[in-house]
Design goal:
The protein has one domain. It has seven helices and no strands. The longest helix is centred in the middle third of the chain and has 33 residues. It is elongated and about 65 Å long. The two termini are about 40 Å apart.
């Protein structure tokens, strides 16, 4: 149970990180300490680093919110499949019967929620490491290229999602 709570805290931090990244610098240190119990010792000169952190935290945060939206949409569509999209049962997953299609869509929509939660918790870990690297005295090097790759991947994902709706 403790692991689930920890993952939920990391996912909550991932969803809060874009707002935190645009706020005062003091809150960028205070919120990880209060939410996750992680202390980040601040650097001395933060002006340029704070701007870069704001941009990268916002970019990864927008992707986090988009993925949370996709997870919610999948869960709702799966649960309420007969009311939303049950017009072509012959070619539907679990079809050709309504019951089969509903079961498959509900299981996928709800069954994948833990995977979505792990993904969001991972984004929270990237956000904390990004804060630690850019604003803290220590931190791994990898959050910068990972944040850039996530930003580019998020843009491509959003464009492909727009083309399929």
């Amino acid at each position: 149970m403790t692991t689930v709570r920890t993952l939920l805290r990391w996912a909550a931090y991932a969803l809060a990180a874009p707002v935190i990244g645009l706020g005062p610098i003091a809150s960028r240190f205070r919120v990880p300490r209060r939410m996750l119990g992680i202390f980040i010792a601040p650097r001395d000169a933060l002006a340029v680093r704070a701007i870069v952190h704001s941009m990268l935290a916002a970019a990864v945060g927008v992707l986090t919110w988009f993925l949370a939206f996709l997870a919610t949409a999948a869960a709702v569509r799966g649960t309420f499949y007969p009311l939303i999209a049950a017009d072509d049962l012959e070619h539907s997953w679990g079809g050709p019967t309504l019951a089969g299609a509903w079961v498959v869509h509900a299981l996928l929509g709800i069954g994948l929620l833990p995977a979505w939660g792990l993904l969001l918790a991972g984004f929270g870990a990237v956000q904390v490491r990004l804060t630690r690297r850019l604003l803290g005295r220590d931190g791994p090097w990898w959050p910068l290229p990972v944040s850039l790759l996530l930003t580019v991947g998020g843009v491509l994902l959003f464009i492909s999602w727009l083309h399929q709706i």
